[in-house]
Specification:
mainly alpha
């Protein structure tokens, strides 16, 4: 905001862990769907740590971020 003054608190271990987790999501349909649901306040934050999302983040290599928007809607359950 223009004119806002102050300092943000330094990031702690939880912030760094959450940042690492969420940087791995772009392009992954399972994690991306959960993330968008949380951002839209349609799902609780804990849905980011559901088994399917956690498995995608922790066990798979990060998917590349798409260069362009998708040309078709995501398939449910994909």
């Amino acid at each position: 905001m223009p004119g806002a003054v102050g300092s943000a608190p330094a990031s702690g271990p939880a912030d760094r862990g959450a940042g690492w987790y969420l940087r791995r999501y772009p392009g992954d349909p399972v994690v991306g769907t959960a993330f968008r649901s949380v951002l839209g306040l349609c799902a609780p934050v804990t849905s980011l740590f559901a088994p399917s999302a956690a498995r995608a983040v922790l066990l798979r290599p990060p998917m590349p971020t798409p260069a362009e928007p998708p040309t078709s809607p995501e398939e449910p359950g994909a």
